[in-house]
Hints:
Elements: H1 2-36, H2 52-68, H3 80-104, H4 112-142, E1 148-153, H5 157-168, E2 174-181, E3 190-191, E4 194-199, H6 203-209, E5 214-217, H7 224-237, E6 240-243, E7 255-260, E8 263-268, H8 275-311, E9 317-323, E10 329-335, H9 342-349, H10 370-377, H11 385-391, E11 395-397, H12 404-407, E12 423-425, H13 427-430, H14 439-451, H15 455-470
Parallel strand pairs: 1-2, 1-5, 2-4, 5-6, 11-12
Antiparallel strand pairs: 3-4, 7-8, 9-10
Helix pairs in contact: 1-2, 1-4, 2-3, 3-4, 8-11
Amino acid sequence: MALIKYSRLIHQIILLLxxxxxxxxxxxxxxxxxxxxxxxxxxxxxxxQNYYFHIALICLVWLIILSFQDGYSxxxxxxxxxxxxxxxKMLLWGFLIVSALxxxxxxxxxxxxxxxxxxxxxxxxxxxEKAILHKYINHLRAKGxxxxxxxxxxxxxxxRRFVESAGSYEPWGIDVVGxxxxxxxxxxxxxxxxxxxxxxxxxxxxxxxxxxDEVIFATDIKHFAEVEEMFKKCRLEGxxxxxxxxxxxxxxxxxxxDIKYGYPILTYSPFKAKDWxxxxxxxxxxxxxxxxxIPFTLVILPVVSALxxxxxxxxxxxxxxxxxxxxxxxxxxxxxxMYINADEIKKQLMEQNEMSGPVFKMERDPRITPVGRFLxxxxxxxxxxxxxxLKGDMSLVGPRPPLxxxxxxxxxxxxxxxxxxxxxxxxxxxxxxxxxxxxxxWVKLDLEYIDNWSLWLDxxxxxxxxxxxxxxxxxx
Length: 476
């Protein structure tokens, strides 16, 4: 308990230090901007006295974001790279919130150059702070300070491997008090330099007679009923407990535990997103698609419609039935880029398919009209799908929606791409597009997106899509 209280104090101090550095970063940004004033076009002089309110507001926003980000939990295994990623995410959210506040009120708006300089300086300050703290804390733990006293419940091979891993990495700062065995035959023996000091029945006695900061359960599944009872004892004693399990180890990162119908339910989700993240993703979809549909409807739609009608027979839009999330069918729309008898011609061209798998791709596809080739080059033909995004059938970012005829030829592992809402752009769009000739590689990129999804990843894909589309990279 003492170590837990000490750790909480340390985390609170680090949080306070982060906020102080954020304020200092803003002050530094003002001075850097003043120094760069001669080379910044149309920038007026500013003084720090005019921005005391903004400093307080930003520190408050940063405090809220940092508190929700779970970067200050009692976590011994958080790497420096993970912390840097959290800092980047925090700054992105901070930028979006401050920009929104500036849009709503002139009193909270900031000069763009000042905001950009502040974000870069703040990032540098916080990364430097985390690097120094990591090095210092790792040094202390290597010297034997700030170690957690841990009791291992279980003597399985899993328990042994965990202790050996923890012992070989000093920055984790773990001291094993001992093991509790499943039966008395192992009491007195040693596992990886630590002694078996009792059985499961001795847990309460061991907690009373030793300084224990944490209990780690590493038992076989057949002992899970006993683990539940021992968990209750840990709760009564106020001792933190964790469970290490080799069961479903490949799915743990995508699992959540909820209480439903009065029972704890372990849920696997192929798309590791929280409800609030999905809600925010939907808000972003609605906002961006609504904005883009204005120039699309007023300018692009009439011009492209005229070009299509004047150069080939047939409708303006290509209406296609595709499969969305969990194989729900919906009608999507694109600008028509092929001649009206394209499906009949496709049957004659199947032997010339350049894409392995169920998708048909051909570099010099004779079905594509001259105007259609231009539209595809700049991905203009995809723009009507913004209506599908606004309706909720699609997202801005997600795997390409497949045709039912394609899904019928999917291999089993291909079908996981149907677990999420399809999108207009994704990793395949910014990593070669039609230059990818192996359907399996295409699906691997989709699954990589699903497995590593975050709002930050969506933003990166959207920004990287812009030059890919404007330059026509990988388009056919």
